[in-house]
């Protein structure tokens, strides 16, 4: 008779107090759907927009929507866990926590710090990488200090609502205005006339008091997904190129989540030299920011061949239609296998090999 293999218990945390609550719930629904129940017991844990913690019962195998997960947390008849102290027991008894949280109060190092303090294993980058990676300004400063190419920008804090004539000349038009710590392109505006700037800043300030005014880089938009394996190797999946519909001027929130004309080409049609430079630069970003587990690096490739790091995402969107799972599907890992790697790497607890070159998949 075959020996029964003990299952690992995985707590999937989702929701949160950020503007990306709905995106997080959608990502978590895909994660819970694709976790292999032959290997894992899955417990959903929702942080409400008000900051309450609701622990659900174990989720059996099945197809889940975001609303399904919300109904499960708490499960019918179960008491609501109103504080992190109540939820701590569920997390502490698990083998690993999978924090499927996007934006502040979850992707920014606050939750990771708590998990570190309580010695609970979790998927993804540690406190420093999460906190610096969440702030676009800090990310750009660190990458620039390491000699990596980033777009020119101006940071506005406090009540600042304009940029100097010198900076206007340096940045040119158009510019993009974005909150420093929001994701999913929320609060981002394209400004084609300086008279539009105050309104764009006001939109960004609805999400963050710190605002970036950034030059518009003309070029192809290419993403590289990096994945750390349990042995410490970091591999780059095949590059992904984003193409938006003719009625959109950039890859905004609607284009990401609601516009069926948005297209992802995987692998991107690139010269091998460009593909190799993208992989090498993406790995450099990974090691410069001291990331762990996974990272998506978004680039612009100018016509001149120059690469520019646009943004990074320490926990990218994880719906089945999101860039990160799609890249690895083409790269040879289906969604369930991708989750296996993330969990096994978290449990291995090994640091990434900072000096190792990225290992491209066959499709890369």
From TrEMBL:
Pathway: Cell wall biogenesis; peptidoglycan biosynthesis. It catalyses: 2 D-alanine + ATP = D-alanyl-D-alanine + ADP + phosphate + H(+). The keyword NAD does not apply. Its main location: cytoplasm. Its EC number is 6.3.2.4. It is found in: Cytoplasm. Its cofactor is Mn(2+); Mg(2+). Residues 140-344 form the ATP-grasp domain. GO terms for molecular function: ligase activity. SUPFAM superfamilies: Glutathione synthetase ATP-binding domain-like, PreATP-grasp domain. Keywords: ATP-binding, Cell shape, Cell wall biogenesis/degradation, Cytoplasm, Ligase, Magnesium, Manganese, Metal-binding, Nucleotide-binding, Peptidoglycan synthesis. Cell wall formation. Belongs to the D-alanine--D-alanine ligase family. This is D-alanine--D-alanine ligase. The gene is ddl.
